[in-house]
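User: My notes are a mess, but here's the protein and adenosine-5'-triphosphate's SMILES. Can you give me a structure?
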Amino acid sequence: MSELLSVTDLSVSYGKIEAVTGVALVVQPGSVVSIVGPNGAGKSSLLNAVMGSVPSKGAVSLLGNRIEDWPIEDRVEHGLCLVPERRELFSNLSVADNLDLGAFRYRQSKDAETSRTRDWLLTLFPRLKERLAQKAGTLSGGEQQMLALSRALMARPKVLLLDEPSLGLAPLIVREIFKVIVSLREHGMSVLVVEQNARIALQSSDYCYVMEGGRFALQGPAGELAEDPRVVATYLGASKVNQGDK
Ligand SMILES: Nc1ncnc2c1ncn2[C@@H]1O[C@H](COP(=O)(O)OP(=O)(O)OP(=O)(O)O)[C@@H](O)[C@H]1O
Ligand SMILES: [Mg+2]
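Assistant: No problem, the inputs look usable. Here's the predicted complex:
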């Protein structure tokens, strides 16, 4: 089986409310996969279930291992990492300390690879390099997202799970962040990204799932979905075109 991550018949319920209903998805090695859909569609619930931070029913496989019963730490150790919707940085700690803590989750010692990863991330995000001593809580929204992404990458995940990386950010910063997300493929990582900005998601991913009411309503190669009249009408309206292309 060449699939890196696969999810089969996954459901998430909160009491009587079923947020995700029998969803199946696949992430191939070296790919960016996106999930788009409106508020309340169940996107975060799905991502959190894959990470193990909310209970779910169904199967989740990572590199051929069934992981749905594993605790979060074991999933991290085997290559999953989530950047949640609320970036959850340590706001009283410096940028540098936040980065170190990202690596600490993965490996206790500061080995050579960790420092290479750190250097690479600071090249990707020079703004962070200029602000290593600054407290994370005083960074701008865009810089905080860069730090959250970088902290997750310090753990060198095989699959990075991203929940709305564009949330609250200006179009230029969104572009900068997605450029980095796309480039992760060249570093042997895959990405599963949840996004409300369908335009940037479709432009940046290989495959896309459209989630509505807890189920996948449509799916396909991102280039094809971007041409689908239903997707164009519902998710790629005129205002979004301008927003995404700035
Ligand atoms: N902890 C919770 N307890 C009860 N209901 C929840 C909980 N988390 C989510 N829900 C409900 O599950 C449904 C799906 O929510 P979810 O956050 O997964 O959607 P989403 O697609 O990520 O939406 P958004 O785009 O607004 O982030 C919603 O109806 C929400 O109210
Ligand atoms: Mg959400």
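The chain is about 40% helix and 25% strand.
User: Great, I'll file this with my notes.
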